Amino acid sequence: DAGITQSPRHKVTETGTPVTLRCHQTENHRYMYWYRQDPGHGLRLIHYSYGVKDTDKGEVSDGYSVSRSKTEDFLLTLESATSSQTSVYFCAISEGGSNQPQHFGDGTRLSIL
Amino acid sequence: GDSVTQMEGPVTLSEEAFLTINCTYTATGYPSLFWYVQYPGEGLQLLLKATKADDKGSNKGFEATYRKETTSFHLEKGSVQVSDSAVYFCALSIYNQGGKLIFGQGTELSVKP
User: Fold this and answer.
1) Residue A98: per-residue pLDDT
2) Identity of the residue in B34, B97, B105 whose CB atom sits nearest the CB atom of A42
3) Which of A98, B33, B46, B76 could tie B95 with a disulfide, CB 3.0–4.6 Å?
4) How many CA atoms are closer than 13 Å to the CA of B86, on its beta-carbon side?
5) By CA distance, what is A59's nearest residue in B?
6) Peptide bond into A8 cis (omega under 30)
7) Is residue A1 over pLDDT 70?
């Protein structure tokens, strides 16, 4: 299995609080991605990174920010959490290129009350 | 825009039955196509892929053929097992777009003994 660790695995918090999710990889892959999974929507891309300090927006980026200060870590921040951001969040890594598969972490279940 | 459409689930089959999960796509470029599988409580795992027209991806008895003329990538297995019960996602990735994946909504498969 690809070395991807997401933390925390579960979190419950209140509306309006900041939340940071962490993705850590040991594969030295260049690309890292954050997705959210919601019933009926599959997975949707939030943000991705193609190198240290290089990030770009995905399909559902509003309300989220990311940072990548080291190759191995990719952080997802909800500056002021809302109930609509209750979801399961997955990190993925890839060597890059459209024909390269992505490898996924086990997910973080986030509930915002 | 680019999109993936999967047949709706849940799909319930008896053990040793034949499986087909339909997947069609819309893409402006030249996509690579993937099937991922998600077991309960886990992240997604790559099941198979195809990177150009007429390619056939295969793994663990599952197969899918990249059909450019019908923009399809249907997943098939000749004889399913209880252990195949999971959610299956079809996805595409467009060349030169950072390897971002666009997912279908997922199809839940339940195999009964």
Assistant:
1) 76
2) B105
3) A98
4) 19
5) B102
6) yes
7) no
For residue B99, the chain A residue with the least C-alpha distance is A98
Taking an 8 Å cut-off on Cβ atoms, the answer to whether B98 and A48 are in contact is yes
Phi–psi pair at A105, nearest 5 degrees: -75, 180
The burial class, CB within 10 Å (0-12 / 13-18 / 19+), for A13 is middle
Which residue carries 């689930």 as its tokens? B9
- Residue A21, CB-side half-sphere exposure with 13 Å CA sphere: 33
CA distance A44 to A36: 5
pLDDT attached to residue A2? 65
Question: How large is the average pLDDT for residues B89-95?
Answer: 90
Residue burial A79-101, b: 16+ Cβ < 10 Å; e: rest = eebeeebbbbbbbbbbeebbbbb
3-class secondary-structure state, position A83: helix
B31-87 pLDDT per residue, tens: 999 999 999 888 999 999 999 999 999 999 999 999 999 999 999 999 999 999 999
For residues B15 and B85, what is the distance between their CA atoms, to the nearest angstrom? 10
Cross-chain Cβ contact B99/A94 below 8 Å? yes
- Alpha-carbon distance A59 to nearest alpha carbon in chain B (angstroms): 9
**Residues contacting residue B67 through CB under 8 Å, at least 6 positions apart:** B53, B54, B73, B74
pLDDT band at B97 (very low <50, low <70, confident <90, very high): confident
Contact between residue A45 and residue A59 where contact means Cβ atoms under 8 Å apart: yes
Q: What is the C-alpha to C-alpha distance for residues A78 and A74, in angstroms, rounded to an integer?
A: 14
